[in-house]
Amino acid sequence: MKLASLKAGRDGRLVVVSADLAWCADAGHIAPTLQAALDDWQRVEGDLRNLATDLEHEVIPRDRFHERDAASPLPRAYQWADGSAYVNHVALVRQARGAEMPESFWHDPLMYQGGSDGFLGPRDPIPLADESWGCDFEAEVVVITGDVPLGATREQALAAIRLVGLTNDVSLRNLIPGELAKGFGFFQAKPASAFSPVFVTPDALGDWWQDGKLHRKLLVDLNGEPFGRAEAGEDMTFDFGTLIAHAAKTRSLSAGTIIGSGTVSNRGGDGGPGQPIASGGVGYSCIAEVRTVETIRNGAPTTPFMKAGDTVRIWAEDDRHHPIFGVIEQTVAAS
Amino acid sequence: MKLASLKAGRDGRLVVVSADLAWCADAGHIAPTLQAALDDWQRVEGDLRNLATDLEHEVIPRDRFHERDAASPLPRAYQWADGSAYVNHVALVRQARGAEMPESFWHDPLMYQGGSDGFLGPRDPIPLADESWGCDFEAEVVVITGDVPLGATREQALAAIRLVGLTNDVSLRNLIPGELAKGFGFFQAKPASAFSPVFVTPDALGDWWQDGKLHRKLLVDLNGEPFGRAEAGEDMTFDFGTLIAHAAKTRSLSAGTIIGSGTVSNRGGDGGPGQPIASGGVGYSCIAEVRTVETIRNGAPTTPFMKAGDTVRIWAEDDRHHPIFGVIEQTVAAS
């Protein structure tokens, strides 16, 4: 089953979307918003699935689904917690600045509490007041959970995953060192994120969803050029079950919690930093990583951060090259 | 005007509360929940204020208001961002562990993104799975904002304050060093917070609300003994307008954002650490601070963190010693 929220009010209007993303059907008679559906999942899931089946069979009124009309599936959420499960990415960033990465990072997940009071739509511009802040994208896989009890096991956590999607976790790189030095984590360095127009239940992903990981390539284009083609199922040190259980260690998580994988990142064939796509590698899922690799290789970064007018595209494809979750496509706009 | 949410469903049921906290009137015909009221404040504020006036005049149906029936006014919120505005508290903590506090802390607010997907009720037990985590309370002042535009000035931020209240920001002290060392801020160290049963519009606070600060004593009792009597209006380096503007520097804030002051803390009469109440001082608003002072004075802390059965009470009073926001009263329970 695929779900989306058409832009309307603060929380959007819930629709069921056809598998090919061409059509949608209003789900307002079942639940007005995705959050309302998640709040009451046991009661509404069956009705939503029946609606999805009817939509595929073309036996109910349907509308064309236009991704540009979609908000992020949860236009605002009660929780957005982002892990850093591709430890390779963290190791590279540390290596570039000559800092040792603690060995514990390989078995104790990194996670930060993100702002969730308002997300950008998947095709919305990224408002940027100051280019010197160093605007970057981060292409990630995310899941939305149901209620997760305090102290949940990995297995309980996996069973609580309701939907899978993608995010562009916008980051202001040049604000990060100052904030991290203060010791309280990210705040100003993490403005509003955007999510893929469509989120998908794990069962509808078939073999692409296994062991709490999405086994598909994450495609990233920057200004129309291929920038990243990393395999999301590879080099993910912590699967989503482990990330959710980490988040639930000292408190329960409410339905509608979004958990992120952190920037998807693959090692190079030699186990070291990966190569750009132009050099035959799988590229990168954020600018910071290519700058890190440039620093390691050449002593200084050369790829600039995003400026007004730059466009990033983030998506994943089925075997016929059709987007699974729709496409995040955002252009930076001076604000 | 005073507002509360009676326990019901995930978001509570909005009521208007009389100034003396004795009575309440259902506000469901105006807005079903506090979040719904904040989402549509321009439209509903007048109706809510009329209802509050009618309640004071006893011209409408009313019910006894029992604080034990109240949830936190926002039982879950889209954002909870906690500052550390009483820099004296931060300076003491650093001093106790022999770490220099950067001078910038006096003009650049510290703030962390807190979990907001589910809060404890003001009389709910604090679930604690492991006493070795070092369970502490933090008594703070908080505000709830309306929509705040990206890049808001302090004045715009002050004008966006809708309600004022108190919180117990529960902290697991012994999990903090490990999390801060990882560099991503608090996560497991900050389980669910609880808020005062009643929140109050700034105008209803009269002279007690000035310059974006609450000018009342914050009273804290631990196991029935006076523990803290700090003046919330004193030693607050950053007022709420400054804290909100800090939060809105790189992104807008949505209606229903809760901003916290951080632990209220007063300097001693000599400018150094304050004295316990038993020694004639104003005491402390969290256990960590008294442990810090004990460490500075005696080389080691002696006051233990909270254990199952320990009870903390947090409130503020009017001139007749009646609680303004009701009382947070929580007992630690093994979970």
Characterise this structure:
- The structure is a homodimer of 335-residue chains.
- Chain A has 335 residues and is of the alpha+beta class.
- Chain A has two domains: 1-65, no CATH class; 74-334, Fumarylacetoacetase-like, C-terminal domain (Fumarylacetoacetate hydrolase, domain 2), CATH 3.90.850.10.
- Helices cover 19% and strands 26% of the residues of chain A.
- Chain A has seven helices and 21 strands.
- In chain A, the strands form five sheets. In chain A, strands 1, 2, 3, 4, 5 and 14 form a six-stranded antiparallel β-sheet that branches. In chain A, strands 7-6-19-10-11-13 form a six-stranded mixed β-sheet. In chain A, strands 8-21-20-17-18 form a five-stranded mixed β-sheet, with no helix packed on it.
- In chain A, α3 crosses α7.
- In chain A, 54% of the residues are buried.
- The mean pLDDT of chain A is 96.
- At the A-B interface, β7 and α5 of A face β7 and α5 of B.
